[in-house]
Design a protein that fits this description.
eleven-stranded mixed beta sheet; 7 helices; two-stranded antiparallel ribbon; Rossmann fold; 26% strand; alpha/beta
Length: 313
């Protein structure tokens, strides 16, 4: 197996960020000891339980982080989850805000957290089929290069590569389902969206399972109209149509926090190639990553991982 052992020890991170679709509040840099590169030709260095990696794309150095759990099975192919930060946020912030590390340890999957490039001074993902509509960054190509790079280092299961993101990161996950569906098995969007342009020119070539988690009180990415691309339920209907789903149902979510409101789970099933589309409509939730410890009715990371791993490409 191509996996190279990591030094695993506690990663002490003290900053927590919002990671939303609007510009995130900056946090202090995380202090880490200087560590020499693993090998001269290698693009990654070990920093605690993380690998800090870089590669060149479009003539620019792009970076990403890898969290490899201590439970990683070196005798079997490994599943991979990409986790994308929101507009103005960072990989460091998303590692904390949409935190999958405990699940990675429990389930033994590889966690990859890419860093967006700058647009007018803010980090972003160019999550649209028209690359000039937001910027010229080829983020789909960047992700493909990451998949190639980690496949040189680990024994990656090609049918077990998934993507999730927050806000602009959620939009990026949906864009990957359109642009490189042959490499991404299933995706999830937390408070994300699709542009009208992407809806009309998605380019998806295979049935693809898609999960949405969205609050009805989101004031950044509207439940009723996204960012102009249509309501979250209309986006789900787009994917249900693409996947040729023939059944739909709804069920009331548990009021875990006891505040008298919860939400609705919308399910589209009996779809091509065993795919599914689901929408967690969370009543009165704003533009946040849901966590029960913060008073929400669901844990976003648990819901996302449970959904994604039902599917193998």
């Amino acid at each position: 197996m191509k996996y190279q052992s990591l030094l695993i020890f506690a990663l002490s991170l003290t900053a927590v960020a919002c990671g939303g679709g609007s510009k995130a509040t900056a946090t202090a840099p995380i202090a880490s000891p200087a560590v020499a590169p693993i090998a001269k030709e290698d693009s990654c260095i070990e920093l605690g339980a993380l690998l800090e990696c870089a590669l060149e794309h479009q003539g620019v150095e792009r970076t990403f982080k890898i969290y490899a759990p201590s439970s990683l099975d070196e005798t079997a192919a490994v599943q991979v989850l990409f986790n994308f930060h929101g507009y103005g946020s960072s990989a460091d912030e998303q590692l904390l805000y949409g935190d999958f590390r405990d699940l990675s340890e429990q389930e033994g999957f590889l966690l990859v957290i890419p860093q967006g490039s700058l647009l007018d001074g803010d980090t972003h993902w160019n999550s649209d089929s028209d690359l000039e509509s937001k910027s010229s960054a080829d983020d789909s190509g960047f992700v493909s290069k990451i998949i190639d790079a980690i496949s040189e280092r680990y024994d990656v299961e090609p049918s077990g590569v998934y993507a999730v993101g927050m806000s602009n990161g959620g939009a990026m996950s949906l864009y990957l389902a359109c642009s490189i569906s042959q490499r991404i098995t299933a995706v999830a969007s937390v408070t994300g969206f699709m542009s009208a342009n992407l809806l009309s020119d998605c380019g998806v070539t295979t049935p693809t399972s898609v999960l949405f988690i969205h609050g009805t009180a989101d004031k950044v990415v509207s439940w009723d109209n996204g960012l102009g691309g249509g309501s979250i339920l209309s986006l789900a209907a787009f994917w249900a149509s693409h996947n040729r789903c023939s059944d739909s149902s709804t069920e009331r979510l548990e009021d875990y926090n006891g505040d008298g409101v919860s939400g609705v789970l919308h399910k589209y099933s009996a779809c091509s190639a065993g795919t599914q589309v689901q929408v967690y409509e969370i009543t009165d939730m704003g533009h946040v990553w849901p966590e029960k410890r913060r008073g929400d009715d669901i844990n976003g990371a648990e819901v996302v991982w449970t959904f994604l791993t039902r599917f193998q490409g």
